[in-house]
Amino acid sequence: MKIAVAGGTGVAGRLVVEVLRARGHTPVVLSRGQGVDLLNGSGLDAALAGAETVVDVSNVTTMRRSVAMNFFDTAGRHLVGAAERAGVRHLVTLSIVGIDRVKNPYYAGKLRQEEIVRGGPVPWTVLRATQFHDFAGQLLSSLPGPIAMVPMGRLQPVAVREVAEALADLALGSPRGMAPEIAGPRVESLVDMARRRIAAGGVRRRPVLPLYLPGGMNSGGLLPTGPGPRGTRTFTDWLGEQRTTATNG
User: Fold this and answer.
1) What is the pLDDT, as a whole number, of residue 63?
2) Checking CA distances to 156, which of 35, 37, 186, 246 falls within 20 to 30 Å?
3) Which residue ranges of the chain lie beneath pLDDT 50?
């Protein structure tokens, strides 16, 4: 099966491509490096010719609401439109658990992406996943100053590879609408994750202080609300791999 992967060069996208290829399918990467631009639509029609399914793991790194909204609205409309013209039978989109409960500029863009998919003509599946294990490290990298003010809140972090496997499973099946949310095996404190990430090395050492933020994160807004697939790889497992990589490097 020919399966197009939007964002196929990103953290999750690379693994989706790898999993699909290992299962004997033909993934086609939709990226600027392959001559496809989601923001202006160039190259999409040619790339989707003959594709039966599209997996959308495209992303933009921003905490500005206007940037997130523009990217996911523009890219989403172009992708859905091209998928309809190509006769794509299934669009699978990766989203995030809690984006409808936690106030966040980036999440506003993801909600817009979901709206476009749900209201579009292409049969669809949306998989909401909890944050990946590297979320605490990414957050720390974005925080300036000698002290890291980390939002209070609980997460159920999941391994990127396990999400990639779940996306591949969905891509090879029939459209399901909103799929059961996928999460990791254990609930963690974001503040504790940040402290442990610093102790593991590879990020700047500094004190971590809890920060209360209104908007849902502190009340469990980023946790799954119902049953669904659960990964097996814990944050502790992931940290151990980071220590090994840092030591060997």
Assistant:
1) 87
2) 246
3) none
